[in-house]
Design goal:
Elements (H helix, E strand, L loop, with lengths): L10 H19 L5 H46 L2
Helix pairs in contact: 1-2
C-alpha cells in the first residue's frame, strides 16, 4: 500500500507534532487548543504542503547524488590519465 505524502509520518511523529502545535499556540499566541484542533491543523498542513516538502527533499537528494556522481566520474577520468 502506498501512503499519501501526508500520511508518511509514524504515529509517534504525529503525536509529537500535535504536542508541538499545542505548545506553540500556548506560548506564541497565548491560546489553548486541544488535541482535536492540533490534529486538524497538522492534517491541514500536511495535506497542503506535505507533498511539496517531500518532493523538494527528493529533488534535493537527487541533485546531491548527481553532483557526487559527476565528481566520481571526474575522479575516475583523472586516474585514467596516469
Amino acid at each position: 500500500m502506498i501512503n499519501r505524502s501526508w500520511e508518511r509520518l509514524s504515529e509517534e511523529e504525529k503525536k509529537l507534532a500535535k504536542e508541538e502545535l499545542i505548545l506553540f499556540f500556548e506560548r506564541e499566541r497565548g491560546e489553548k487548543i486541544g488535541l482535536i484542533a492540533a490534529e486538524e491543523l497538522l492534517n491541514f498542513f500536511l495535506q497542503s504542503v506535505g507533498g511539496k516538502l517531500y518532493n523538494k527533499g527528493l529533488t534535493d537528494a537527487k541533485k546531491a547524488l548527481e553532483n557526487r556522481f559527476d565528481e566520481l566520474k571526474f575522479d575516475i577520468d583523472d586516474l585514467m590519465d596516469f
